[in-house]
């Protein structure tokens, strides 16, 4: 009978207490998605009243009861089904702990404390608190699409998921050695119908100078109470300068001309040497090229290789080989 009486008495007093609530102080509290939030009551109990003489309960803005403590014992009969098993009373702090907090739990909550006396329930304390629920977005991630090796234009996409509330801003930041440029882009926002969490993304096509080293970041600015999130950098290294077509063609023609002249010169000298009397040569024995001829070929090759490939060491080695100073198989 005690529980039935408490239910009837509690129902009768809800309306009266709700009217008194308009003058009560309101506290702000925050909780993170899927974690535990505190709904304070801040009752001092200066008269040291026993819990056996008190009725304590919390309700939301729709007058749905989250938790009731009737004369020192939990009374789940008045608790709304969506809150059953999710709330626990912290007697030391006179606060209600709401577990597994969801985005839908955002709202205003009231704490009521009544003294159970001979004349029924007497309100001795009430308090209102506003609960806001946050969910941290994932670290932004940059994805590059449709970029070819010879193209200076890149298509960027950045995304971040599972956050709340809706972020304020999302942008790309391009950094070079001497400059920083921010690109503000309109966000694409999707909200999950079940969890109410947000997924956000932005896209941008930009041209990047191939002569500079570039680092690209994606920056997400959530609610003012949350920390700014920055992606890992996407780095683009400067391309080495390529020789101009005119220079390549000129060097190629010079190389062909030098080789033709020197080759003709060597053949003429070899032909003249064969006509002169001298010791016979066995088949397969190399015909020695005089140093003057080798010097001509070496000079031509050195100039051509140095101009085209900027590798003087290779040209020098070729020259030394033709001068007879080193073997062609010498690695030095």
UniProtKB/TrEMBL annotation:
Keyword Disulfide bond annotated: yes
Gene Ontology BP terms: adaptive immune response; cell surface receptor signaling pathway; cellular response to lipopolysaccharide; lymphocyte activation; negative regulation of T cell proliferation; positive regulation of T cell proliferation; T cell costimulation
Keywords of the record: Adaptive immunity, Cell membrane, Disulfide bond, Glycoprotein, Immunity, Immunoglobulin domain, Membrane, Receptor, Signal, Transmembrane, Transmembrane helix, Ubl conjugation
Highest taxon of the lineage: Eukaryota
Gene Ontology cellular-component annotations: external side of plasma membrane
Stored PROSITE patterns: IG_LIKE
Domain spans labelled Ig-like: 39-128
Residue spans crossing the bilayer: 248-270
Signal peptide per UniProt: 1-31
Chief site of localization: membrane
Cross-referenced InterPro entries: CD86_IgV, Ig-like_dom, Ig-like_dom_sf, Ig-like_fold, Ig_V-set, T-cell_Activation_Regulation
CDD domains tied to this protein: IgV_CD86
Membrane topology: Single-pass type I membrane protein
Functional description taken from the UniProt entry: Receptor involved in the costimulatory signal essential for T-lymphocyte proliferation and interleukin-2 production, by binding CD28 or CTLA-4. May play a critical role in the early events of T-cell activation and costimulation of naive T-cells, such as deciding between immunity and anergy that is made by T-cells within 24 hours after activation. Also involved in the regulation of B cells function, plays a role in regulating the level of IgG(1) produced. Upon CD40 engagement, activates NF-kappa-B signaling pathway via phospholipase C and protein kinase C activation.
Descriptive protein name: T-lymphocyte activation antigen CD86
Organism listed in the record: Pteropus vampyrus (Large flying fox)
């Amino acid at each position: 009978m005690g529980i039935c009486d408490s239910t009837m008495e509690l129902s009768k007093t809800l309306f009266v207490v709700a009217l008194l609530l308009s003058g009560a102080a309101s506290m702000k509290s925050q909780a993170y998605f899927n974690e535990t939030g505190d709904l304070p009551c801040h009752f001092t109990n200066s008269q040291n009243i026993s819990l056996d003489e008190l009725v304590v309960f919390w309700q939301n803005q729709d007058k749905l009861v989250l938790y009731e403590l009737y004369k020192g014992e939990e009374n789940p009969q008045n608790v709304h089904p969506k809150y059953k098993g999710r709330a626990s009373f912290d007697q030391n702090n006179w606060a209600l702990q709401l577990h597994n907090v969801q985005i839908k739990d955002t709202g205003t909550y009231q704490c009521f404390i009544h003294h159970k006396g001979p004349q029924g329930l007497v309100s001795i304390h009430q308090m209102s608190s506003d609960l806001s629920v946050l969910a941290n977005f994932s670290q932004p991630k940059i994805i590059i699409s449709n970029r070819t090796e010879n193209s200076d234009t890149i298509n960027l996409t950045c995304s971040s998921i599972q956050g709340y509330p809706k972020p304020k801003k999302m942008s790309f930041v391009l950094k070079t050695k001497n400059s920083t440029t921010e690109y503000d882009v309109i966000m694409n926002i999707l909200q999950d119908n079940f969890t109410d969490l947000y997924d956000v993304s932005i896209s941008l096509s930009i041209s990047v100078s191939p002569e500079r080293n570039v680092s690209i970041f994606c920056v997400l600015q959530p609610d003012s109470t949350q920390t700014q999130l920055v992606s890992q950098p996407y780095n683009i290294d400067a391309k080495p300068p390529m020789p101009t077509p005119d220079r390549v063609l000129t060097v190629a023609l010079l190389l062909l001309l030098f080789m033709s002249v020197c080759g003709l010169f060597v053949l003429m000298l070899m032909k003249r040497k064969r006509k002169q009397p001298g010791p016979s040569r066995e088949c397969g024995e190399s015909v020695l090229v005089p140093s003057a001829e080798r010097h001509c070929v070496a000079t031509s090759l050195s100039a051509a290789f140095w101009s085209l490939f900027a590798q003087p060491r290779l040209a020098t080695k070729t020259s030394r080989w033709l001068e007879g100073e080193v073997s062609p198989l010498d690695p030095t």
